[in-house]
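Provenance

Sequences were taken from public entries as deposited. Structures were produced by running a predictor on each sequence independently, with no templates supplied. The record for DUF481 domain-containing protein from Pseudotamlana haliotis is shown for reference.
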Amino acid sequence: MKIIFYISLLSLLSLSSLGYAQIFNIENFVIEKDTIGFSGGIDLNISLVKNTKTNFSFNNYGYIEYRIHKHLFSLTSHVHIKRVDYEDDINNNSLLLKYDYQARKHLFFESFIQNYTNQVSKINNRFMVGSGARFQFVETKKFMYSFGSYFMYVYEHEDDNIGHEDDEDHIKVPSVYHNDLRLGLYLSSVYDLTENISFKLATFYQPEITYFKDYRFDLMARASLKIFKNLEYNISYILSLDSYPAFEVPTTQYQLLNGLSYTFK
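Predicted structure for DUF481 domain-containing protein:
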């Protein structure tokens, strides 16, 4: 019953937000030490500012995974909403389904499917499917790191008219469609400084196979302070770089977040 409750809670938080939002490049910020059976967690970052305008921001990240023997199934979701005077200013979401198979002590094969939308980056839809290998090492009880590579197919629909359907002054730009093959390289690590303080770092590099000048780079860093057994306070920094973004979108974007996360194992 406890497992069903956690699954329901994760689904409710994610799906209720999807009604307002459209999810992010989570590519896999879940960096947990091996746990048999079910494990997962939810992050919540919420802010409300009222002055001449009402500013509301909601950032929800959740994951659940199930490990049995050498098999690991995981589902991650992310929703980010920012509303100014009840109008969407930022609206993005992502859903990632992944399967891992442990072939050797340190070698894992993995496959994934992800769907991603981002109103600010003018990405109406980005669908990704890929497969690759990951090497994972647990040096001590305090330190773990992994690195890997994968190939993936990316279908993307860029639409500069998102959010401007009723704006007569907005210059209409034709939609752009991409069908790319990309290489993915990543490195991630976890370090437990003390029983209550930990650090996580993940970097991702994704060049287009036929044109390496077209690449995407992501860096995600987090510092966590344990408040209770399963409750942590987090400060997270996310940097995203796209060498060929959509029309009038900057090549570099970043977020600095703070909030609470709840995990279960």
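The chain has one domain: 2-264.
The CA atoms of residues 128 and 154 lie 5 Å apart.
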